[in-house]
Design a protein that fits this description.
Elements: H1 5-9, H2 12-29, H3 34-43, H4 49-70, H5 77-81, H6 84-104, H7 110-130, H8 144-165, H9 170-181, H10 185-209, H11 214-218, H12 220-241, H13 246-265
Helix pairs in contact: 2-4, 2-12, 3-4, 4-10, 4-12, 6-8, 6-10, 7-9, 7-13, 8-9, 9-10
Length: about 270
């Protein structure tokens, strides 16, 4: 029997399951899952664009924070601290890029912009698939000031793209950390979460100042159930991280990039 959008939205079990599914992806790969959750919030649950965006960012924050916590069993905090220059390097560029992204959206033809982003995602997917056969042996290709400059430029581009697409940017951060800095994919996933966390907090703070967070109050029950599912899924994904080898995670992330590229290419 067909269920209307109102009935679907009131289904607490479905909200929990969707949250858990996206949360599992976040815990396993190191993503906020915004690009997968947003279409479901609109098409499946029937939220308007603004409410869906606000709920999506709030749930992304829940996934990022909980996944980062649960993944410490496999990727300890000390291991992340060792890579603090990577976080600072990328974060310095991404925060500036996020600011520029808002202005860029009004100056460039959307169709052209989305095609360029789709091409970038597809290129990163191909680079990840070829990564095991590249001669670097898991080490960074650049050193010193050249690496810092490349990291800032990469962070800048990721910040712009993430701002335009309304995502945390994990699908771009992880391959960048793997390919540019020579970090293994499991550590890269946690580092991606560290970089994404302050970005999401800043975006939600901006929404709070504009009074847009009322969507969370209006749909409090739905948000709490999806958040509970997200935390549960993040715990499951983090547990799987200790079982699933990095050799499987690389092609899995490449597949996510291909799907994202296709979705962005079709964006209107």
């Amino acid at each position: 029997m067909y269920l209307g959008l109102g009935a679907v939205r009131s289904s607490g079990g479905l909200a929990f399951l969707v949250g858990a599914a996206v949360g599992t992806l976040g815990g396993l790969i190191g993503l906020g899952g915004a690009e997968f959750r947003l279409p479901l919030l609109i098409a499946l649950f029937g939220f308007g664009a603004l409410a869906a965006v606000v709920l999506n960012k709030a749930m992304s924050l829940v996934v990022v924070a909980s996944a980062l916590l649960f993944r410490t069993g496999e990727v300890p905090v000390g291991q992340l601290v060792e890579h603090w220059p990577v976080v600072v390097n990328l974060l310095g560029g991404s925060l500036i890029g996020a600011w520029w992204g808002a202005a860029l959206a009004t100056r460039v033809q959307p169709r052209t912009l989305y095609r360029v982003i789709a091409g970038l995602l597809a290129f990163l997917a191909l680079a990840l698939l070829l990564h095991p056969w590249l001669p670097s042996g898991g080490t960074a290709y650049l050193e010193g000031h050249a690496l810092v400059a490349a990291g800032l430029l990469a962070g800048l581009g990721i910040g712009v793209v993430a701002s335009l697409l309304g995502v945390a940017g994990g699908e771009l951060l992880i391959p960048t950390i793997v390919l540019l800095f020579g970090v293994d994919i499991k550590t890269a996933g946690s580092l991606s979460l560290v970089v994404s966390l302050p970005t999401l907090l800043v975006r939600l703070a901006r929404y709070s100042r504009n009074g847009r967070l009322r969507a969370l109050r209006e749909h409090r029950r739905f948000a709490l159930l999806m958040a509970a599912g997200s935390v549960t899924g993040a715990a499951v994904g983090a547990a799987l991280l200790g079982v699933v080898p990095g050799a499987v995670l690389l092609p899995a992330l490449a597949l996510i990039l291909v799907v994202s590229a296709w979705k962005v290419w079709q964006h209107r």
